[in-house]
Every structure is written in structure tokens, then in C-alpha cells.
Amino acid sequence: MRPILTHIARQVRDLDASAEFFARYCGMREVHRRARDGRPHVVWLAEPGKEREFIIVLISGGGAAPQADDDYGHLGFALASREEVDAVAERARADGRLVWPPREEPYPVGYYCGLRDPDGQYVEFSYGQPLGPGAPD
Prior knowledge:
alpha/beta; 2,3-Dihydroxybiphenyl 1,2-Dioxygenase, domain 1; 137 residues; four-stranded mixed β-sheet; 8 strands; 2 helices; Signal recognition particle alu RNA binding heterodimer, srp9/1; 19% helix; 39% strand
């Protein structure tokens, strides 16, 4: 048996705001939307070209549950360069979403910044971690 991770599902307070966040900052696009009782209820998001590999499922109806400052649970996205991390951080700063300014940490963390999504959950953008672009050889 070899299970393959295909999706992560998260309940969110505002489906459209969350979908917009993942499009704006993560480059994800909507690949499926379903309504319940005439209102949007579920959105599937994927990286372009990876729609059959991994998705984030957003489900409406989440409650207010912002993360505590000392809770470092997060979703992580790898970027192609330090400059891309800096660009995301500047956009997030302008939007009032930046919580971890860009910084370098010892391996395996690398160069990263962190944002809060519309539900107050952390999302990290990194370069130089063992996974994704910039991984050391």
C-alpha cells in the first residue's frame, strides 16, 4: 500500500476571500465550485498544471479561529528565488497581511516570510528548503 496525498480541506469563514487570497499570493486557480442551498459552499484550488496531483479544498462555514502567535502550524509554498519571497512580503505588507518579515534561518528552513490568510492562519513562502525551487544539492 502506498497512499498519495491528494488534498487538504479547510473550513473558511469567507469562501470568496479565501479563494482570492490563494489566487493572489499562491498563484492557485479555481478548478471546481459547488453550491449548497444556492450559495457557494466548496471551492477546489490547484496550481496550474497540477490539477490532478494536489488541491486545496475550501469549505464555507468555518468559525473565527485565528492562530496564536506561538503556533507555527502553516501551509508552505516554495518560490523560485529570494527576490520572489521579498516581492510576496512587500505585497503582503501593503495588504496588512505580513506577520513574518523575510529572514534567513539555518537549513532546512532557508529564506522565508509568513502571511495571515483571511481566517488568520499562517501561510509561508520560502526559498532554499529541501523541497521545491532552490533546494540544495
